[in-house]
């Protein structure tokens, strides 16, 4: 039986208004970097290979400028209040991102939200090079360098309703295992194609309003197909 709710939030384009990873590489490298992303979107290269290529394309990094671009990024103005509301209602909030811990932590800190758990790819600056790391790479998933499905699967209990809020292709695995989905942009297309019901949202006020409705219900039920997929995933894992 469902006792509590846990929310997994995408960062780029969801918590943060812009897609910071795309903004950074477009600004630092220019059009050339889109080639890697196009190949990734077509499924021709894996998510981590895409990021390796993006980082390799950056030479002579100006760290100050890099940080400046990050410091210009703003989060959804409704997000801090949303987090406050969740705290009040004992709803856990976690950030899942196929971007980098480096800028996510830096941006969250600016809004005093650095206590939120963040699961993202890592990024080190060595001299004038960007060195990516993939602590959550799932070799069975080529969709993203940080397979968000793994976190949605493992970071919640059977008595928790798993909610995913996202906007893009890297949220696909997360959505497969989610009980409730909030989607915008490309993620809507994926939900439609996969027959996964979703709430369309444009900002965290919308999410909060819908969450209030959900929390008012006497009983929360897991999404049947997500439950089956979670069970299947655990069975496969147990047999490996
Ligand atoms: Mg996104």
Structure explained in plain terms:
With 240 residues, the chain is of the alpha/beta class. The protein has one domain: 3-Layer(aba) Sandwich (Rossmann fold). Helix content is 44%, strand content 18%. The chain is built from eleven helices and seven strands. It has helices at 20-28, 34-41, 47-56, 63-71, 79-88, 101-110, 148-154, 172-176, 186-193, 204-216, 224-239; strands at 4-10, 92-100, 118-126, 129-133, 160-166, 180-183, 199-200. A seven-stranded mixed β-sheet has the order 4-3-2-1-5-6-7, sandwiched between helices. The radius of gyration is 18 Å and the shape is globular. The protein binds magnesium ion. Residues 10, 12-14, 166-168 line the site of magnesium ion (MG). Magnesium ion is lined by residues 10, 12-14, 166-168.
List the helices and strands and how they pair.
Blueprint: E1 4-10, H1 20-28, H2 34-41, H3 47-56, H4 63-71, H5 79-88, E2 92-100, H6 101-110, E3 118-126, E4 129-133, H7 148-154, E5 160-166, H8 172-176, E6 180-183, H9 186-193, E7 199-200, H10 204-216, H11 224-239
Parallel strand pairs: 1-2, 1-5, 2-3, 5-6, 6-7
Antiparallel strand pairs: 3-4
Bound molecules: magnesium ion.
Magnesium ion binds at residues 10, 12-14, 166-168.
């Amino acid at each position: 039986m469902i006792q509590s709710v846990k929310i997994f939030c995408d960062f780029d384009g969801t918590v943060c208004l812009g897609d910071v990873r795309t903004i950074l590489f477009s600004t630092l490298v220019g059009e050339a970097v889109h080639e890697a992303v196009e190949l990734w979107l077509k499924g021709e290269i894996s998510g981590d290979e895409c990021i390796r290529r993006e980082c390799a394309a950056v030479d002579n990094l100006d760290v100050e400028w890099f940080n400046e671009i990050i410091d210009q990024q703003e989060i959804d103005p409704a997000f801090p209040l949303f987090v406050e509301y969740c705290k009040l209602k004992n709803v856990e909030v976690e950030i899942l991102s196929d971007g980098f811990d480096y800028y996510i932590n830096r941006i969250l800190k600016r809004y005093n939200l650095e206590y939120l758990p963040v699961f993202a790819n890592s990024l080190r600056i060595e001299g004038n090079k960007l060195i990516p790391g993939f602590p959550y790479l799932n070799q069975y998933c080529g969709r993203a360098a940080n397979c968000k499905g793994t976190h949605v699967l493992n970071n919640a209990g059977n008595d928790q309703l798993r909610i995913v809020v996202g906007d893009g292709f890297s949220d696909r695995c997360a959505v497969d295992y989610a009980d409730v989905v909030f989607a915008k942009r490309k993620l809507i297309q994926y939900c439609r194609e996969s027959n996964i019901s979703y709430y369309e949202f444009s900002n965290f006020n919308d999410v909060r309003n819908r969450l209030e409705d959900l929390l008012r219900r006497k009983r929360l039920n897991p999404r049947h197909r997500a439950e089956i997929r979670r069970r299947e995933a655990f069975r496969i894992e147990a047999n490996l």
